Please model this.
Amino acid sequence: MNYQPSDFLPILVQLVAALAFIVATMLATHWLGPKRHSVLKDDAFECGIESVGDARTPISVKYFLVAILFVLFDVEIIFMYPWAVNFMGWVKSTSDVAITMFLEMLVFMGLLLLGFIYVIKKGVLTWEK
Model:
């Protein structure tokens, strides 16, 4: 299929409109917003709690490891949903593609399980030692 430059015109128009809206909104809030500054108003404020002390308090690395592992395994689960939807379509046709897809998912799940076992053996999910 040969695409002409005019085929991409709607995308370009939408991109320009989105950028124009962003720039216009930022300029409007800057020009129309209040410009009163004071020590109390410019003080850091978070969820109704006054800021006290240093913001650079040490946090356990395990917290970040658990968060990263959650994202990693969550993304792998996201890959499984479209596979399952497509797999059901191929199973109904009983083709060799369904067998190949099933074996590929077994390899994927095996690698996922190996990664999970590695994480458990390293003790990343153990909070207290």
